[in-house]
């Protein structure tokens, strides 16, 4: 992908391929396995909580400002602080990393579900009512499918951030591929660090592409609309308004 | 809950409040690194976002738009700790400069994207009106587009500042001072009180940043712009 890099200062190259070969089947594979568990469990848990919570917030509008304030404060708290506070309750287990990441996932997904449901045009809702859809059937058959595009966009953001945040867990010894960073620092040896960074970015990229494909498969109508205006993609601003 | 009370007790010990490892000094260090990183970030990202957003015609504008968007997505995937450790292993440990580089690299995209998107989203009619009044490009940018884009720009800056505060915490692992020291040193000594105390201080700082930006947006965003949104 990029031209071979080398450290200018001394003879130690940025990447020693033989180290990768030697450690591929244990350190790297084990880190990857742990990384997958630590990053995807929170996404699934977060989705399971965010859907009902988001539906409730969209229905009872008074509740939403409180939930939004809570999630935006939560999102501001650095992961390492949450990990450390949790160690007292969950010890040095996977839960210590999974719980904070689930909370971060929630703070991305709940607004996404609410925005998605609110983006359903009123005439569509009224048509569904006119066709005799009850509230539950309207939600499941009409509103949720139409909200799916926004929800999936949130899911992609949450998944990619989780994949990169897991590595912070290596500061308390549970960091998946992030443990390679610590190895590299302790031995003053760049190869594991580069391998760690590259595999985390690659993992995030693959996850994003897969989710994008799922999103496209589930919402074919959006593609038809987008085809016409695909020339200039508008950037999505971050950190919504208060 | 005992663990939390015990950590709160940590705050009451006299030695926490003086000397180089005292809370006042560590808070000051943390705020200093964060402001330094933030200033560099804004210095780079704000003018770039304004200019890129303002130049909207032709193919180059489309390409830069795509690049700006991708940079934000890519930044989300970058593992902070890895960048910090790589910067330190490749240079000399403990220096501020190699640590500031990843700090700024991670904080530039949110400011850049929000500034760019904010300027782009200014209504065409508003710009035409400004030009009709005889404003030049630079005046349109600074007196119309910038004020209207300000809420989004501030949201991006807030995201960047939060990112910087939390990255500066992690930077204690590679020898930087600041609040992260309590967490990293506490972990090394298996001193949970110090770790939790440090974590609580970091949380307080992050919440304070939120409040500062909420106050700032009240102060600087024009009432007309606020009412319209």
UniProtKB/TrEMBL annotation, chain B:
It is a multi-pass membrane protein. One of its GO terms (biological process) is transmembrane transport. The chain crosses the membrane at residues 31-53, 74-93, 99-119, 164-184, 196-216. It comes from the Bacteria. GO terms for cellular component: plasma membrane. The keyword ATP-binding does not apply. It is found in: Cell membrane; Membrane. It holds the Pfam family BPD_transp_1. InterPro entries: ABC_transp_perm/SBD, MetI-like, MetI-like_sf. Keywords: Membrane, Transmembrane, Transmembrane helix, Transport. Residues 27-213 form the ABC transmembrane type-1 domain. The keyword Transferase does not apply. PANTHER family: GLYCINE BETAINE/L-PROLINE TRANSPORT SYSTEM PERMEASE PROTEIN PROW, POSSIBLE OSMOPROTECTANT (GLYCINE BETAINE_CARNITINE_CHOLINE_L-PROLINE) TRANSPORT INTEGRAL MEMBRANE PROTEIN ABC TRANSPORTER PROZ. Belongs to the binding-protein-dependent transport system permease family. This is Osmoprotectant transport system permease protein. It comes from Thermomonospora cellulosilytica.
């Amino acid at each position: 992908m990029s031209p071979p890099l080398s450290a200018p200062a001394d003879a130690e190259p940025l990447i020693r391929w033989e180290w990768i070969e030697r450690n591929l089947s244990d350190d790297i594979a084990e880190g990857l396995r742990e990384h997958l568990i630590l990053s995807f469990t929170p996404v699934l848990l977060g989705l399971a909580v965010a859907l009902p919570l988001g539906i409730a917030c969209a229905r009872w509008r008074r509740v939403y400002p409180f939930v939004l304030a809570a999630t935006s404060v939560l999102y501001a708290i650095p992961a390492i602080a949450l990990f450390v506070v949790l160690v007292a309750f969950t010890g040095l287990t996977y839960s210590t990393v999974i719980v904070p990441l689930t909370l971060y996932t929630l703070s991305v997904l709940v607004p996404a579900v609410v925005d998605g449901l609110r983006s359903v045009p009123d005439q569509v809702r009224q048509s569904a009512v006119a066709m005799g859809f009850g509230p539950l059937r309207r939600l499941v058959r009409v509103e949720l499918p139409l909200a799916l595009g926004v929800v999936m966009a949130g899911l992609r953001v949450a998944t990619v951030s989780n994949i990169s945040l897991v590595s912070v867990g290596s500061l308390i010894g549970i960091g998946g591929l992030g443990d390679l960073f610590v190895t590299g620092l302790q031995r003053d040896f760049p190869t594991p660090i580069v391998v760690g960074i590259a595999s985390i970015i690659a993992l995030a990229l693959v996850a994003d592409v897969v989710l994008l494909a799922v999103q496209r498969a589930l919402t074919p109508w959006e593609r038809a609309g987008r085809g016409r205006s695909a020339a200039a993609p508008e950037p999505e601003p971050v950190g919504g308004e208060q | 809950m005992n663990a939390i009370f015990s950590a709160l007790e940590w705050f009451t010990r006299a030695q926490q409040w003086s000397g180089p490892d005292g809370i006042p000094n560590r808070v000051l260090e943390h705020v200093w690194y964060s402001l330094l990183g933030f200033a560099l970030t804004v210095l780079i990202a704000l003018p770039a976002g304004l200019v890129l957003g303002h130049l909207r015609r032709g193919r180059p504008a489309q390409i830069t738009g795509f690049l700006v968007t991708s940079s934000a997505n890519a930044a989300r995937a970058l593992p902070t700790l890895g960048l910090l450790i790589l910067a330190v292993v490749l240079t000399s440990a403990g220096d501020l400069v190699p640590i500031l580089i990843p700090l700024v690299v991670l904080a530039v995209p949110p400011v850049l994207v929000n500034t760019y998107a904010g300027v782009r989203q200014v209504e065409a009619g508003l710009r035409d009106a400004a030009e009709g009044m005889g404003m030049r490009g630079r005046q349109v940018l600074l007196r119309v587009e910038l004020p209207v884009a300000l809420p989004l720009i501030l949201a991006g800056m807030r995201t960047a500042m939060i990112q910087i505060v939390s990255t500066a915490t992690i930077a204690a692992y590679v020898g930087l001072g600041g609040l992260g020291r309590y967490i990293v040193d506490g972990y090394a000594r298996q001193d949970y009180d110090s770790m939790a105390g440090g974590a609580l201080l970091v949380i307080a700082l992050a919440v304070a940043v939120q409040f500062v930006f909420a106050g700032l947006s009240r102060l600087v965003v024009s009432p007309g712009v606020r009412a319209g949104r």
